[in-house]
Design a protein that fits this description.
The chain has 2 domains: about 130 residues, no CATH class; about 60 residues, no CATH class. The protein is about 20% helix and about 35% strand. It contains 4 helices and 11 strands; from the N terminus they run βαβββββααβββββα. A hairpin with a 4-residue loop joins β4 and β5. The longest helix has 22 residues.
Length: about 200
C-alpha cells in the first residue's frame, strides 16, 4: 500500500493512538483489534487480532512508516504507509511484547521478519550489557578498523567528550583524537588503568 497523508490526526493526540484506532474495527465478516502497539522512532508496530465469523483467530503484526510535517504546502501534517509482516518489512525493531502476542504463521517472509526482530532484540540486550568505557580507560576492539592513512587499529585510550556523553578515542601512537560511530555495536573489551605501586612511582 502507498502513503496516505492527512491534514490532522482526527482528534487523536498521537500517531500511535490514531493508528490504533485505524486498525481496530468491526466488519461484516471479521473483527480486528489492536492488542499491543508501540512507536520505535517514527515506525509504528502493532499486534492485531483478527477474529472471523467462523471464530478463527489470528494475531499478526502490522508495521507502519510515519511522517509528520508542519510546513507542507498542501497542509497535510501526517502520513503513514502500512504493511503487514507477510511482506517482510525492512523495519525490524519490533518490541518483544508485541512479538509475544503473535500466533503461529507459515509465511516465510513473516517468519524471517520475526527472526530478524528477535535477533535485533538480542543484539540490543548484549549491547546494554557491555561495560561503558570511561575516560582514562583503554578500549580494545576485536575487529581492527582501517583509517585514512591505511593503518589498522584496535586499541584506543578513552577520552571525555566536552560536547556530549559519547566518548572520544585517542590513538596511543599518533595521539590523534577520533570518533567511532556506533562503537557499542562492535565487540570490545575494557582495560582499566594500570595501578602503579607507590614504591615504583617514588623511585
Amino acid at each position: 500500500m502507498g502513503w496516505l497523508f492527512m491534514r490532522d490526526l482526527g482528534g487523536f493526540a498521537t500517531p500511535r493512538s490514531y493508528l490504533d484506532n485505524q486498525f481496530t474495527y468491526q466488519r461484516d465478516t471479521h473483527r480486528l483489534t489492536v492488542l499491543a502497539s508501540a512507536m520505535v522512532g517514527s515506525t509504528y508496530y502493532a499486534a492485531c487480532e483478527r477474529i472471523d465469523d467462523d471464530a478463527d483467530r489470528l494475531v499478526f503484526a502490522i508495521v507502519c512508516l510515519t511522517k509528520t510535517s508542519t510546513g507542507a504546502r498542501d497542509g497535510c501534517t501526517f502520513g503513514f504507509k502500512d504493511m503487514d509482516e507477510t511482506v517482510g518489512p525492512n523495519e525490524s525493531e519490533c518490541p518483544g511484547a508485541i512479538l509475544d502476542e503473535l500466533t503461529e504463521t507459515d509465511s516465510e517472509y513473516a517468519l524471517a521478519w520475526r527472526a530478524r526482530c528477535r535477533a535485533n532484540l538480542l543484539a540490543r540486550k548484549l549491547d546494554r550489557a557491555k561495560p561503558t568505557p570511561k575516560p582514562g580507560q583503554t578500549i580494545i576492539f576485536d575487529e581492527p578498523m582501517r583509517f585514512s592513512d591505511g593503518s589498522d587499529r584496535t586499541r584506543f585510550e578513552v577520552v571525555a567528550n566536552p560536547k556530549g556523553k559519547t566518548p572520544l578515542f585517542r590513538d596511543p601512537e599518533s595521539r590523534l583524537l577520533c570518533r567511532i560511530p556506533a562503537f557499542r555495536k562492535r565487540a570490545y573489551r575494557i582495560i582499566h588503568p594500570a595501578i602503579v605501586p607507590k614504591d615504583a612511582a617514588s623511585g
